[in-house]
């Protein structure tokens, strides 16, 4: 009987430890990923065209990939921040939005509301989000032209984005 009680206590302690670890991970803005080179993908865009990561990287531009949904409050907060950055840096950095777990008409209404003009789509978003190990929205990936993942982040502020775009540009420069 005492051995069974001890096993229950140990089991509860393990569950408590696991729960605390998950809470710490969920509360962190820094997200670890299981890859260092971004997986290639092709995304059908809302305007009927197609975005292919490898083609964009081959052009020498780094890429910012943002996973989002219209029903996501933090996505609404970062939409104007991303749009402003895309407007200012679009000649040097490609921005693409991957709309997930959403209705296309809701996503397009969201884009109009926040005047989002950079490439966005949802066709094949499910497989892409699985490929990237997406855990929730928003998530943003910063990818150098050689395909290296520079950073992954949840819920960007304007200050975060400026810092990370600087890192991305430095990482995208000539390598020795």
Give an overview of the whole structure.
- With 176 residues, the chain is α/β, with parallel strands linked by helices.
- Helix content is 46%, strand content 20%.
- It contains 6 helices and 7 strands; from the N terminus they run H-E-E-H-E-H-E-H-E-H-E-E-H.
- A 7-stranded mixed sheet has the order 2-1-5-4-3-6-7, with helices on both faces.
- The radius of gyration is 19 Å and the shape is globular.
Number of strands: 7
Q: Treating each run of at least 4 consecutive H or I residues as one helix, how many helices?
A: 6
Strand content: 15-25%
- What's the quaternary structure here? single chain
The arrangement of helices and strands along the chain is HEEHEHEHEHEEH
What structural class is derived from the secondary structure elements? alpha/beta
Shape: globular
Strand order of the largest sheet: 2-1-5-4-3-6-7
Instruction: Give the CA-CA distance, first to last residue.
Output: 66 Å
Given as residue ranges, the uncertain stretches (5+ residues, pLDDT < 50) are 8-31
Spatial extent as radius of gyration: 19 Å
Largest sheet: 7 strands, mixed
Mean pLDDT: 85
Secondary structure: helix percent: 40-55%
Notable characteristics:
176 residues; 46% helix; seven-stranded mixed beta sheet; 7 strands; globular; alpha/beta
């Amino acid at each position: 009987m005492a051995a069974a009680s001890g096993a229950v206590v140990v089991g509860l302690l393990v569950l408590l430890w696991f729960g605390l670890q998950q809470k710490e991970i969920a509360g962190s803005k820094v997200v670890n990923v299981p890859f260092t080179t971004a997986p290639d993908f092709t995304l059908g865009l809302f305007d009927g065209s197609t975005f292919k990561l490898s083609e964009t990287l081959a052009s020498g531009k780094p890429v910012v990939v943002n996973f989002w949904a219209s029903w996501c409050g933090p996505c609404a907060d970062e939409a104007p921040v991303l749009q402003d950055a895309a407007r200012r840096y679009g000649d040097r950095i490609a921005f693409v939005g991957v709309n997930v777990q959403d209705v296309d008409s809701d996503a397009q209404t969201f884009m109009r509301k926040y005047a989002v003009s950079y490439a966005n789509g949802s066709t094949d978003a499910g497989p892409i989000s699985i490929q990237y190990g997406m855990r929730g929205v928003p998530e943003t990936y910063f990818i150098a032209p050689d395909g290296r993942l520079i950073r992954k982040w949840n819920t960007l502020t304007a200050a975060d984005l400026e810092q990370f775009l600087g890192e991305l540009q430095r990482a995208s420069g000539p390598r020795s």
